[in-house]
């Protein structure tokens, strides 16, 4: 097999994978119909969320979800015509709420999350991008004084796996983040969580470094993958046909389609999230805040405050519904009543969500030269470099640094 690798997708996962493949000595081509980071990777909340050990599907989910779907202000929305297609995914999602499974999934997430900073460090240093990472910690805000007690289960899930945290009362939480209003009555501070102050620029910086090291970046959309017995020989794009040595699928929420081209049905939903950028705010939040009650995040980005939130289950290429962004903004006006500011821009992007809250990482069982690197849900920015390092080692044929069984494509 030649030493060439094609990576489909120039999001954070694709670019980190490409950089790690270069470090392994491969000649790498990244193919993307958009610019680097212009999928979900550029518009997210920026958190390097090493405390996000609890999976999305938790005991009690079957009771909570229907209630949320009936509340027009709730952060969870389904475009109803999608429901028939989504039901099998939801059935798997709910099965993963069994306590034993939750613990196993939490362990598997923790194994990736404990490697996040170590995997990013060489890429950030080499690309000169360390200044984009802020080490402020992160605040989880509650609107009930007993919020942390009510969330004992998920807090303990983190603490028992080594996540440091401080429980704060109302006065302490508002002292730590003065932008919070009186509705904030308790909090949990995660001192070791870091964030990226401009995720789009991070991916663009990685892409520029990749090219300066000899990597090729093709602005083309992949429309087909030619398969032969046990492997793939070429990709078809909007510009023509490219023979491939090895192929990495890192196309985020669009990966399901590409996986199907090589014969795999990967269960993946693509819930949209939205962001609003506020400029000229009256106060500047000091650190990223996540509201537990409202499921929105407020992040002090470079030159603006970014409000992110909403999980809207829709088809991956469906048009945005900007009312969703307004719902999130409305929540922020209550959480941080003095924030002020004007809306500079809005954005929508899709998360690639598997029903077991674990990414798909590893060699395809039936196609020896195809590798999967997608399905990171709400943690793709966090896990991008870890996934890149794992995939590059797998492509190079080296033993993985951790057991990849929980993330393997063949698990579904
Ligand atoms: C509102 C919101 C907030 C979030 N906050 C966080 C956070 O704080 N921390 C965190 O870690 N994660 C967060 N996430 C999740 C994170 O953004 C994603 O998990 C991550 O961006 C996925 O990266 P990716 O590289 O897999 O996919 P993407 O960034 O979506 O990139 C996929 C790329 O593949 C390309 N592509 C697709 N199909 C083709 C094709 N056929 N041919 C060529 N190219 C193709 C696309 O153009 C795109 O550029 C958030 C997501 C949302 C929506």
CATH superfamily of the domain at 1-54 and 98-134 and 194-267 and 354-412: FAD/NAD(P)-binding domain
The CATH architecture term of the domain at 1-54 and 98-134 and 194-267 and 354-412 is 3-Layer(bba) Sandwich
CATH fold category name of the domain at 1-54 and 98-134 and 194-267 and 354-412? FAD/NAD(P)-binding domain
Number of strands: 21
Outline type = globular
Number of helices: 12
- Give the termini separation: 28 Å
Question: What's the average pLDDT?
Answer: 95
- CATH class placement of the domain at 1-54 and 98-134 and 194-267 and 354-412: Alpha Beta
Q: Which range does the strand content fall in?
A: 25-35%
Bound molecules: flavin-adenine dinucleotide
Q: Which secondary-structure class do the elements indicate?
A: alpha/beta
């Amino acid at each position: 097999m030649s030493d060439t690798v094609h990576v489909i997708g120039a999001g954070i996962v694709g670019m980190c994978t490409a950089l790690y493949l270069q470090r392994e000595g491969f000649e790498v081509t990244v193919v993307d119909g958009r610019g680097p980071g212009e999928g979900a990777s550029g518009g997210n909340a920026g958190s390097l969320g090493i405390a996000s050990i609890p999976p999305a599907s938790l005991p009690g989910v079957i009771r909570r979800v229907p209630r949320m779907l009936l509340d027009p202000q709730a952060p969870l929305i389904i475009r109803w015509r999608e429901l028939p297609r989504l039901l099998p995914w939801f059935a798997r999602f709910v099965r993963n709420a069994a306590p034993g499974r939750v613990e196993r999934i939490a362990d598997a997430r923790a194994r990736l999350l404990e490697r996040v900073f170590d995997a990013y460090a060489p890429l950030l240093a080499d690309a000169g991008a360390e200044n984009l990472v802020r080490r402020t910690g992160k605040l989880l805000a509650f609107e009930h004084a007993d919020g942390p007690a009510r969330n004992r289960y998920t807090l303990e899930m983190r603490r028992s796996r080594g996540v440091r945290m401080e429980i704060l009362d109302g006065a302490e939480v508002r002292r730590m983040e003065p932008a919070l209003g009186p509705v904030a009555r308790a909090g949990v501070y995660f001192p070791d969580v870091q964030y990226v102050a401009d995720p789009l620029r991070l991916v663009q910086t990685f892409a520029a470094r990749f090219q300066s090291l000899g990597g090729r970046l093709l602005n083309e959309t992949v429309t087909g993958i030619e398969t032969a017995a046990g492997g793939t020989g070429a990709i078809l794009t909007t510009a023509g046909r490219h023979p491939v040595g090895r192929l990495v699928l890192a196309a985020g929420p669009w990966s399901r389609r590409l996986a199907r081209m090589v014969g795999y049905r990967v269960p993946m939903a693509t819930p949209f999230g939205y962001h609003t950028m506020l400029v000229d705010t009256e106060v500047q939040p000091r650190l990223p805040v996540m509201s537990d009650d409202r499921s929105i995040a407020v992040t002090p980005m470079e030159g603006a405050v970014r409000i992110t939130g909403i999980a809207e289950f829709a088809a991956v290429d469906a048009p945005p519904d900007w009312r969703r962004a307004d719902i999130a903004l409305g929540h922020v006006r209550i959480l941080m009543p003095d924030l002020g500011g004007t809306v500079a821009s809005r954005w929508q992007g899709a998360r690639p969500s598997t029903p077991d809250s674990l990414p798909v990482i590893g060699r395809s069982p039936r196609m020896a030269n195809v590798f999967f690197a997608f399905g990171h849900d709400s943690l793709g920015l966090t896990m991008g470099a870890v996934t890149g390092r794992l995939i590059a080692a797998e492509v190079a044929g080296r033993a993985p640094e951790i057991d990849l069984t929980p993330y393997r494509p063949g698990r579904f």
